[in-house]
């Protein structure tokens, strides 16, 4: 591609003790795309996401974000560039939904300053987009797991960062809200040229929403490329050890995966 990469990832590795979790990963990710990271449990997906968000640093290799070493970018600046939705997030006690969503604005608010009109507009928009405006005054310890997770997604939207990272962000949600959140994410990519990088277990979700897929296996990227190129029965068998059938879904103009039981 002619444009510079958003993430330039050069042979990065990270181990827990003597066990490599990410092993010599080498790739480039570009702005304005929806990426899916897929692979079996323990293959390094979440660790790779931790490296991309700066919560962990590579033990070897080079990781650049917009041409700068990611580990050198100040945390406050990094929070303006990246927003993470984890699989689990401890919202703590004593916070309302509105306060949790407002936390997404902290990188944009000067120290000792109060939230301004732009901050409240971002909070209100996020609450309405996720459909939890009626929960804004509820304390998070009174919410269901799914409601709490939707508040965390709204917090990331309010952060208004150009790149969103999802770590199985909808695993606790029913299908209605999963589709809602993936539709919002896809619209951010298509209409605002933002970037979404999502760890996804559901291959059909990945087929429906992702522009490109990275298949991970044993800490490495085994296959990566456009979804239509990479999401094949052969690759699924190589990664997961299961037989499947991949076909075009005429209703959605995307691929559909079915498994041999």
CATH homologous superfamily label: P-loop containing nucleotide triphosphate hydrolases
Strand order of the largest sheet: 6-7-8-3-9-10
Structural Rg: 19 Å
Poorly predicted runs are none
Structural domain count: 1
Question: How widely separated are the two ends?
Answer: 41 Å
CATH-assigned fold name: Rossmann fold
Residue share in helix = 25-40%
Q: For the record, what CATH class applies?
A: Alpha Beta
Strand content: 25-35%
Largest sheet: 6 strands, mixed
- Globally, the shape reads globular
Average pLDDT rating: 94
CATH architecture: 3-Layer(aba) Sandwich
The helix/strand class is alpha/beta
- With helices defined by DSSP (H or I, 4 residues minimum), what is the helix count? 9
Counted beta strands:
12
| Helix and strand element order | EEEHEEHEHHHEHEHEEHHEE
Written description of the protein model:
- A hairpin with a 4-residue loop joins strand 11 and strand 12.
- A six-stranded mixed β-sheet has the order 6-7-8-3-9-10, with helices on both faces. A four-stranded antiparallel β-sheet has the order 2-1-4-5, covered by helices on one side. It has a two-stranded antiparallel sheet with strand order 11-12.
- It has a single domain, classed as Rossmann fold, CATH 3.40.50.
- The mean pLDDT is 94.
- It has helices at residues 45-53, 75-81, 97-102, 117-130, 145-159, 175-192, 203-209, 227-230, 233-240; strands spanning 7-16, 19-29, 34-38, 60-65, 68-69, 82-85, 163-167, 195-199, 212-217, 220-226, 244-249, 254-259.
- The radius of gyration is 19 Å and the shape is globular.
- The chain is α/β, with parallel strands linked by helices and 261 residues long.
- Helix 4 crosses helix 5.
